[in-house]
Amino acid sequence: MNREMEVGKYLARIGYRGPTEPTPENLMAIHRCHLLSVPFGSLAIHCGERIVPELPLLYRTIVEQRRGGFCYELNGLFSWLLEELGYPLRLLSAQVRNTYTDRFGPPFDHLLVLAELGGRSWLCDVGFGRAFRTPLPLEAGRPESQENGLFELGCEAGTWHLRRWVGAASRDAGEAGETLYKFSLEGRRLEDFRPMCEYQQRSPSSIFACKAFCSLHLPRGMVTYMGWRLIETEYTDGGRSRVTTQLTEEQIPLVLKERFGIELRNPLVPRDDEIVPPPVEY
Predict the structure, then answer these.
(1) How many of the other CB atoms lie within 10 Å of CB of 219?
(2) 53, 190 in Cβ contact below 8 A?
């Protein structure tokens, strides 16, 4: 198996044609292209495929087979790309607040990338459906407006958290916003996430195990497949609007190909089950 990355193929996969030198501007452009090109989701799990967080395997899946994946795959591979391009970085462990159970997942529930450039730290995340489009400077209390929402980092007793408002007006009106996840700044290794990668593929408390889905950022919105539904979201200055279309099993492969650029090698079993809250509160 090839253990070397072909950077040109990776950049072509995400549609990036600009400069790659380690600068904040280039990091933002590469990050944005990645989110607009590579779907996030759980399809492999529901095709009976086991996901192993090893870089050559991730490269083959995402770049050569033009598939998507979840955070261990997408952010894991993205960190390899940045390293090849000369970006100083470290991996971070995060815990996602599940929107279905309103509980945080266990440690190593989510993988993040922190890049160090120009004397500042930049939080990167190309492996999360509601993520920011361009990296956020690691600064507490600094709201940043992007096309898909207003994002703000906070820090309490050494634990960072990321909050999102769908529109700036909602924050101005005093709404608390949605906490997406919390994390620490301790550096991790990709192999540290292996047990949680297994957990996400089989636990009844994991959205990835319970729901067959994928999502892709669009310039002015997002498109999501889940179970037997296609959900199209458009972001506006005042918030967002959504259109949901019911799908037959026969339509799903065509939708995945036309809207997400994904052709599966094994049959997909659609699934949209309830998620069981984890037995322990984190």
Answers:
(1) 9
(2) yes
What digits encode the pLDDT tens for the residues 63-99? 999 999 999 999 999 999 999 999 999 999 999 999 8
DSSP letter at 101 equals T
Longest Cα–Cα distance in the chain: 54
Q: Extract the tokens encoding 65.
A: 């087979």
H or E stretch including 31? Answer: helix 24-35
Task: Tell me the residue ranges of DSSP E strands in the chain.
Answer: 40-41, 89-96, 110-117, 120-124, 136-137, 144-146, 149-156, 159-165, 178-183, 213-218, 221-226, 229-236, 239-246
Whether the model pTM is above 0.90 = yes
- Where in the chain are the domains? 7-201, 207-260
Single out the residue of 102, 76, 100, 109 nearest to residue 199, CA to CA.
109
Q: Which architecture, in CATH terms, is 7-201?
A: 2-Layer Sandwich (3.30)
pLDDT digits (tens, 9 = 90+) for 102-115: 899 999 999 999 99
- Nearest of 7, 9, 26 to residue 18 by alpha carbon: 26
* Spatial separation of the C-alpha atoms in residues 242 and 163, rounded to whole Å: 21
